[in-house]
Specification:
about 475 residues; alpha/beta; 2 domains; about 60% helix; about 5% strand
Amino acid sequence: MQRKLTISVLLLSVIFFFIFQILKFSYSPDDTYIYLKYSKNIANGNGFSFNTGEPSYGVTSFIWAVFLSTPFLFGTDGFWFAKFADLLVFISAAFVFYRLVSFFFSDFNIRLISVSLFLINPWVIRSVFTGMETSLAILIILIVFQFFYQRKYYLGFFFSGLSLFIRPETAVIVPVLILTLIFDNSLELNRKLRIIVLCVIVFLMTVTPFLVYSNLTFGTFLPNTVSGKASLNFVPSDIFPDVKRIFTVFALIQPFEIFFALLGLILIIKEKDFRYIPLILWIGGLLLLYLIASAAVMARYFMIVYPFVLVIAMRFFEQLTIRNYYYSLILIIIMFVYSSFIFFRYVKPYSDNFTAGVEQCLIPLGKWIENNTPAGSRILVNDVGAIGYNTSRYIIDAAALINRDLELNKKILSLSVYQKENPHLMLDFIETDYLVEKKSLPVPVTETKNYRLELLEKWVFPQMWVFDPNPQYFFLYKVQKKVR
């Protein structure tokens, strides 16, 4: 009876997952178009670049960008290829997650319940089927731990090396695995040292060739998104607000899972179950890195640790199921209801409004630039993805992500938040012919101290952020320097 109920729960989760994906079918963030612009240039022989022929490291995942060049090689658009590839990668991740859970739980019901909860998390649902690298990052990290628990250490470190070119912060996993090996009393000392040395060699052999290539080609070892999304400037006085921000986002994604994981952690400590140590260190290590780097965290950044929080939470579920299977079933129903509430209250309205914004604002804006500005024009832009994808004009990124000029990026990143959000304030050190600027009020800028801004067009974007339902207004200006 329990087995049939558990299978029914899994089937219901799968149905929920796909229904929710259909309900947000066309949604993709603007960053997906950044990947597609790079992929298109790769396929057309223009190198790894956003602006044709100008190499820059403006995406988080080099591997994902190269992979997404596949449809362009055959002369087709990559948007739907990216989205369905993302979905298939996530489905693969769900199967690997089941395999990983099997290392911790022999109970068939617990394993299927784990996968069920993995599928219905509303922020997982939001992150999947977008064309971004998130699902691939989840899959690779799960594979790393899969091999590690199988004691196939060299394969684990090889994939941890690959993960660096999908999401750079996954480098945290290397010291986590080394620490685990150091304190593994089941290994004889000489064998332990040999394994650690060879694992480090495998990791370095995996990452070194690309790091050398990256530095020679782009002038940087890490993608511009690292410095663009994190200040990399640890200030002790900022610890409390940073902790609060990270905890708020983390707790919002998985409140039930975090609560159950804390209960599971108590059981793990009480029973001294050392199998969970790598997972605990990985979760804590990533959160600590985000804190030290003062990262501007978003919900999808935490997706790479969510499966492991869930594994720890399932330790509590296991105890609950042993006592009374129906208690755990009631909690699952509550989590289903919560997931549905978050989806319909936040995820779906945001996805619909954002999709409308891309289709009615960003894409038309990019096409207007392509059709109404002279070839060779330079455009300074807030959000470069869909706009840059739909024009061949030279794009300057006010967020310092896709720019090849690293010194320019440093100048941009040194500005205050207000200055970054108002790129007309950058005109004194950025030479541009046109300016695209978004504002929260429908009031255009007419001039700066040294420049006149001629308003050409205006578009409305219904909703840019999940928890801010207010529209944003995109203004396109012709930039003219004042004559003195």
